[in-house]
Amino acid sequence: MVIESSATGLFRTLLVIGGVLFVLRFLGQFMIAKRNMEDERKHNQNQQNFDTEKRSKKKSEGKIKILGENISNKSDIQDVDFEELD
Fold first, then answer.
1. Using one digit for the tens of pLDDT, what is the confidence trace for 14-28?
2. What is the DSSP annotation of the chain?
3. pLDDT tens digits for range 32-46
4. Is 40 domain-assigned?
5. Chain centroid to CA 22: how far?
6. Which residues touch 71 (CB under 8 Å, ≥6 apart)?
């Protein structure tokens, strides 16, 4: 088998290598953009959850919550007597 080198073969090989590198670079940029969009989507969802929770906390701020009979009958709740110190 005889291998001959020619200018057209060399040019074709360089074009193929360049094309493969171009496609790989394009795919890399595409994957980075996709990852960044997913991170931004997660960040926006977390921010929205935080804002919703903040609004609900602010809405219920200052309200009194009365515990029902079930909770007050538990044995782990203890009454504490306070004594004044002189």
1. 999 999 999 999 999
2. ------HHHHHHHHHHHHHHHHHHHHHHHHHHHHHHHHHHHHHHHHHHHHHHHHHHHHHTTT------HHHHT-TT----------
3. 999 999 999 999 999
4. yes
5. 30
6. 77
Domain count, the chain: 1
Q: Which amino acid is at 59?
A: K
Q: Is residue 68 part of a domain?
A: no
In a domain, residue 83? The reply is: no
Interior/surface letters 59-70, b for 16+ CB within 10 angstroms, e for the rest: eeeeeeeeeeee
pTM for this predicted structure: 0.52
d(CA 16, CA 10): 10
